[in-house]
Every structure is written in structure tokens, then in C-alpha cells.
Write a structure and sequence with these properties.
Blueprint (H helix, E strand, L loop, with lengths): L15 H15 L6 E6 L5 H14 L4 E6 H8 L5 E6 L3 E6 L5 E5 L11 H17 L5 H11 L4 H9 L4 H6 L2 H5 L5 H18 L11 E4 L1 H5 L1 H10 L4 E3 L5 H11 L2
Parallel strand pairs: 1-2, 3-6, 6-7
Antiparallel strand pairs: 3-4, 4-5
Helix pairs in contact: 3-12, 4-5, 4-6, 4-9, 5-6, 9-11
């Protein structure tokens, strides 16, 4: 099996030309392959028009292949070997997804970084920038969080920070700066409060989904949630059912779903 990696692209919010370009580059790296089945998990696939365009592109690329396109959070449960449960994902973006035993689905969040994605890497960075700017404009020290954010963006002062942030047009660029918050949790009360609010926002994605899957389990996934212990601990404390970490790569969920197309 060959693995290839490339930049992501939300099929509902990223310019379609860029989606096609990134997907084509990724598939070209695989070489000449003709799969019997193909499953794609993509952010934005829940938007019918966006999901249909991705399906069409894959069907053209792999003629004769059985193709399915699902929201990327669907892959989390499949990768965990579950047909029912709740997936809570926090990485660049955030989303909660539930699938009941009868196949009924529900989603909370996943609105994209300009509108929502509370508790995600982008959201954490945005809240950090807002706090630093509020401190600066009120004449208070910007704190270790502010110092770290300035250094990470190459800014000399808060005004330059805003200019540098506005020059970043990719969500992943914003999400990478969330590291400044976690790195200053021990030295800045504001950083600790942002992490606490992020955990609360993520847990609030889960609670309404418990109506669909009252016993869970909740599968935790995403680079921010799985690699930041204080955030994970906060989520576990606030979610009232069992939480388990996703141990397998999410792409294994796509393989499992593709195998299902052949049965």
C-alpha cells in the first residue's frame, strides 16, 4: 500500500480550482492505480453540491470504480471500528458527528473557520490574538502569550501582528499558531482560560448529539485534541459519557468504507 500526503482543502469553502489542483497532485503521486472502490472523506462534503462535484471528479479519475464521498468525520468512527457512536474532531477545524445504529446521522459545528469551528486550532489562535490586542489597546502588558504570538508571526508590535495575521489566507497557517497558547499555559492566565473555553466549546458539540447516541462512545480525534493533554483532559471532564482516543489513522476509515462498497 502506498501512502501520499498533501495539503487539505474543504470542498465547500476552498476555491474549486484549488481543490482540483491539490487532489490531482495527490492522485498523480499514487501513480497508475485502478481501484475497484474509492471512498473520500472530505470537509464540506455534507454540502450536496460540493460532495457531488468531488464524487464526479473521482468517478472521472477512476472509471468503473465504486465511489462514495462522506464528511471526513464519518471516517473517524469507521477507523475506530464502530458503526455507531460520536466523533469529536478538533484540529485545524472542529466538528461533532453522530451515527446511530439505525444509520441516522447528525452533525454539530463544522461551519468552517470564518464562521465557527469553536475549540479548533484556528479558533484558539483567533481568541489569543483578540486577547493580546485587547490587552495592548487597554494599555496592559501583552504577557507571555503576546510575546509568543509576536515572535511566531514575526511581528514587532501588536499592530504588526494584526497585519501579519490578515496576510495568512489558509486556515492551517492560523491553526499552527495555536501552539503559542499551549506553550504559555503555565505562565499566562489568558492562555489557560482560552484552553478551558476551547474544551467547553468542544464538549458542547457533543452534548446535543447524545440524543442520537446516548451511550456514546465519543471518539476523540484531530491533531489539536489528541496532542494537547490539557485540552483533552478538559473535554473528558466535561463530556458525560466514555471518551476513547482514535488510535488508527483516519484514512483507515476510508479503507473500511471502501471495502463495504464491494460487499
Amino acid at each position: 500500500m502506498t501512502d501520499v500526503i498533501g495539503p487539505g482543502a474543504n470542498v465547500a469553502t476552498v476555491e474549486w480550482r484549488l481543490v482540483e489542483e491539490r487532489l490531482s497532485t495527490l492522485l498523480d503521486e499514487l501513480g497508475a492505480v485502478a481501484p475497484d472502490a474509492c471512498c473520500a472523506g472530505a470537509a464540506g462534503a455534507e454540502v450536496p453540491a460540493a460532495g457531488a462535484r468531488l464524487h464526479e471528479l473521482l468517478a472521472q479519475r477512476f472509471p468503473g470504480s465504486r465511489v462514495c464521498v462522506v464528511h471526513d468525520s464519518r471516517l473517524i468512527l469507521a477507523a475506530a471500528g464502530l458503526d455507531a457512536g460520536i466523533a469529536l474532531v478538533a484540529g485545524t477545524g472542529s466538528v461533532g458527528y453522530a451515527r446511530a445504529r439505525d444509520g441516522q446521522e447528525a452533525q454539530r459545528g463544522g461551519w468552517g473557520w470564518m464562521v465557527g469551528d469553536e475549540g479548533s486550532g484556528v479558533w484558539i489562535t483567533r481568541e489569543a490574538a483578540r486577547l493580546v490586542m485587547t490587552r495592548a489597546q487597554n494599555g496592559y502588558p501583552i504577557g507571555t502569550l503576546g510575546d509568543a504570538l509576536l515572535a511566531s508571526t514575526g511581528a514587532s508590535d501588536p499592530a504588526q501582528l494584526i497585519a501579519n495575521l490578515h496576510s495568512m489566507h489558509e486556515a492551517m497557517e492560523w491553526a499552527a499558531l495555536a501552539e503559542t497558547v499551549f506553550a504559555t499555559e503555565d505562565s499566562d492566565d489568558g492562555s489557560r482560560e482560552i484552553v478551558h473555553r476551547a474544551a467547553k466549546a468542544l464538549s458542547e458539540l457533543v452534548v446535543p448529539l447524545l440524543r442520537r447516541c446516548p451511550d456514546g462512545p465519543v471518539v476523540l480525534a484531530g491533531g489539536i485534541l489528541l496532542n494537547r493533554p490539557t485540552l483533552e483532559a478538559g473535554v473528558r471532564k466535561m463530556v458525560p459519557v466514555e471518551c476513547v482516543r482514535l488510535e488508527a489513522p483516519p484514512v483507515e476509515g476510508a479503507l473500511r468504507l471502501a471495502e463495504g462498497l464491494l460487499r
